[in-house]
Write a structure and sequence with these properties.
This protein is α/β, with parallel strands linked by helices. The structure holds nicotinamide-adenine-dinucleotide and magnesium ion (MG).
Length: 393
């Protein structure tokens, strides 16, 4: 029986994870669940999964969550604040941690799970974007098993040789990675109309049902940019070894091209329960509850190159990947501020890339040689981005 902590249990990945776990009560037991503010969902999940711990990271929501737990006779110990996350990932009883908190808030708990040598299912791409080599060094040091949940990285992982190890893929005859992306809801929208797109339109992804931050990132294709950086660290590749390919149907989740001309692809319906079940069961294969692909219904597989005029955020992310860690960390921080401002109606859709560009162009190179330095720098860039936002208002 494997005991699992789900960080960010109330989000889109968290819900899908618990869905897969519920199909395999003989294999997996929930040890702890966390949320930031959605305490009602958290308590509903606790009634079903009977974890030993619940963590509510926003302290303002703690007393409400604790009271709901009492009314529902939930026996789990309820803890408050981000520091409590460390306890429930490092705990000796925990075998596996699903890292599904959104944004930079996921970095420290995910890293703690890695340091504790757990099996870590990595959905939180931002932690790897922020701290790349420091993060991977800790994986090597602790011997943690880091398995990608992002559908593209999970696909690449499945198409890599069995000898795959973080940072050693280059020796395996790999020519390049073909990182696929749907192009999001605005792939065919006239560029002149993008400035007036609303948060609701940006979050209406044609193929995937996801949290709001990643949905906006998919509409700007910053998501593909963050994924390119994530793939560099996970697979030890250079940015120029990764080619972004637009594939609007979201059936091929990414491909690996080898030196002999072979291209291996992983296909499946666009449903996150497939990569979650793959990583959860690894190295075995377990049922995910996802409908199987029906090839008789597949009329059209199309591919195109991304247009950087439409998706300036993708160009910025590739630039940042080439510039180095400081640039990726800065871009990630600026983008979190920009996306939040867009979701709050404070800036337009096209202002997201404008703000990211302003921040990136004004950031000078520096070396980030510790996690403390990463966190301090991340905060500095957020402050700067907020400052630009106020100037723009
Ligand atoms: P979501 O917004 O649906 O859920 C986020 C979760 O994190 C919630 O449980 C929320 O309570 C928690 N949270 C939010 N802010 C927090 C904070 N400051 N501190 C602690 N917890 C906090 O997001 P999601 O779509 O599930 O995405 C989660 C992560 O997985 C993201 O990093 C995203 O990029 C990645 N991812 C998601 C998908 C997807 O299909 N949703 C696919 C690939 C990767
Ligand atoms: Mg993805």
């Amino acid at each position: 029986m494997q005991k699992i902590t789900v960080l960010g249990a109330t989000g889109s990945i968290g819900l899908n994870t618990l869905d897969v776990v519920a199909c395999h009560a003989d294999k997996y037991q929930v040890f702890a669940l966390t949320c930031h503010r959605q305490v009602e969902t958290l308590i509903r999940q606790a009634i079903i999964h009977q974890p030993e711990y619940l963590v509510i990271t926003d302290p303002d929501y703690y007393s409400q969550g604790k009271e709901l737990a009492r009314q529902a006779n939930v026996t789990a110990e309820v803890l408050a604040g981000s520091d409590a996350l460390i306890h429930i990932v490092e705990h000796a009883d925990v075998d596996c941690v699903m890292a599904a908190i959104v944004g930079a808030a996921g970095l420290l708990p995910t890293l703690s799970a890695v340091k504790a040598g757990k099996k870590v299912l990595l959905a939180n791409k931002e932690s790897l974007v922020m701290s790349g080599s420091l993060f991977i060094q800790e994986v090597h040091k602790s011997g943690a098993l880091l398995l990608p949940i992002d559908s593209e990285h999970n696909a690449i992982f499945q198409c890599l040789p069995a000898t795959y190890l973080y940072g050693q893929a280059q020796s395996s005859g790999i020519d390049k990675i073909l990182l696929t992306g749907s192009g999001g809801p605005f792939l065919n929208t006239p560029i002149s109309e993008l400035a007036s797109k609303t948060p609701q339109q940006a979050c209406a992804h044609p193929n995937w049902d996801m949290g709001r931050k990643i949905s906006v990132d998919s509409a700007t294709m910053m998501n593909k940019g963050l994924e390119l950086i994530e793939a560099c660290w996970l697979f030890g590749l250079l940015p120029q070894q990764i080619e972004v390919v637009i594939h609007p149907q979201s059936v091929i989740h990414s491909m690996v091209q080898y030196n002999d001309g072979s291209v291996l692809a992983q296909l499946g319906n666009p449903d996150m329960r497939t990569p979650i079940a793959h990583a959860l069961g690894y190295p075995e294969r377990i049922d995910s509850g996802v409908n199987k692909l029906d090839f008789s219904n597949m009329r059209n597989f199309s591919f195109e190159q991304p247009d950087f005029k439409r998706f300036p955020n993708l160009r910025l992310a590739i630039e940042a990947a080439n510039q180095g860690q400081y640039a990726s960390t800065a871009l990630n921080a600026a983008n979190e501020v920009a996306v939040e401002a867009f979701l709050q109606g404070r800036i337009s859709f096209t202002d997201i890339a404008r703000l990211n560009n302003d921040v990136l162009q004004r950031t000078s190179s520096l070396s980030l040689d510790s996690i403390d330095a990463v966190i301090e720098f991340d905060q500095q860039i957020r402050d700067q981005a907020q400052h630009y936002l106020q100037g723009a208002a």
